[in-house]
Write a structure and sequence with these properties.
Blueprint (H helix, E strand, L loop, with lengths): L2 H4 L2 H19 L4 H5 L1 E7 L2 E6 L2 H8 L2 H11 L6 E6 L17 H12 L4 H11 L11
């Protein structure tokens, strides 16, 4: 039987997004080292289920359960009454891509000037294509 006939993928995706948002909201309350070592795994039957990477981190997380419960009660319509912490390896969190600095108008001007003096048409086209990616604001005095 195909998976699409077993579960409603839209509701599953919506639940995953809601849990991810709640995870971010709750871990924001934690000290940074602890927040890196735990994740919200589930919210079911009034229990917040967290995963921690070691028993030591699990213990530290339990020290913050009052704040976690209070925030979860504000964030959810569910009646949240317990925190459960399990020790397990966490799935890797994808890093946000580094923001690249845009090509300046001055750099684009230099690329266009260099392209004018190139004899290789392919290299000239590459320089002009790169120059076209620059900010549209020309440098002062240019």
């Amino acid at each position: 039987m195909p998976v699409t006939q077993c579960v409603d993928l839209q509701s599953l995706a919506a639940r995953a997004r809601a849990l991810d948002a709640l995870d971010g909201r709750l871990r924001h309350l934690l000290p940074a080292p602890l927040a890196r070592e735990c994740r919200l795994a589930d919210l079911r039957d009034g229990r917040l289920v967290f995963l921690a990477t070691s028993p030591a981190w699990a213990t530290r997380l339990r020290l913050h359960q009052a704040a976690l419960l209070a925030e979860a009660r504000v964030a959810c319509s569910d009646t949240v009454g317990h925190v459960v912490v399990k020790v397990a390896a966490l799935p890797p969190v994808p890093r946000e891509p580094a923001r690249r600095k845009p090509l300046s108008a001055t750099a684009a001007m230099h690329l266009r000037t260099a392209a004018q003096h190139l004899s290789d048409p392919e290299l000239r086209a590459l320089c002009l294509n790169l120059a076209s990616l620059a900010d549209d604001n020309p440098p002062a005095g240019a």
